[in-house]
What we know:
alpha/beta; six-stranded parallel sheet; 14% strand
Amino acid sequence: MIRLLLADDEAMIRAGIRAILASDPELDVVAEAADGREAVDLAISHHPDVALLDIRMPRLDGLAAAAEIGRAAPEVAVVMLTTFGEDDYIAKALDVGASGFLLKSGDPRELIAGVHAVADGAAYLSPKVARRVITQFAGGRMARGAAARDRIGGLTEREREVLALVGAGLSNAEIARRLHIVEGTVKAYVSTILTRLDVRNRVQAAIVAHEAGLVA
């Protein structure tokens, strides 16, 4: 089972999201929060696999809550849920370490797919968000490409290979099968890569992989 924390200040929205998640027998909502502060407390006390956080919440917004969860319970993967698709929200969500970003107006299947992907150690952006990120990073590509190639210069050949697969969107399990190694070894490689690149999560690492030309 994938254990979930759901945080949204609107009870009806929470009920709707919970109903969608309940359609998958592998997903279990173990805690619900009505604001960001409560979400942080519940993440620390319940240790869910994934926290689904609305961006706009009272007391503590979703972005600030994600940052606190990242510090206090780094094993909890965070997915941001919002009705807004502005670029500044996307950038801030990735900056605080979110592993996923989903629009509430998206297909319910995206929600379930995103939860599974993030729980499996991958990153997930809804298609609309992914297009915005691609557009945002399209400008100034050559300059960033040179900087990214410098950043990966200290990686071993195997680490670059793993980074390329992270950039392609593969989960730890998929990378392990592709490289014929155990999943624990992949996790160790990913952890080392994040440290050497000085990035907070797989999404940021994937961006470096793309900018460096490791991903077609």
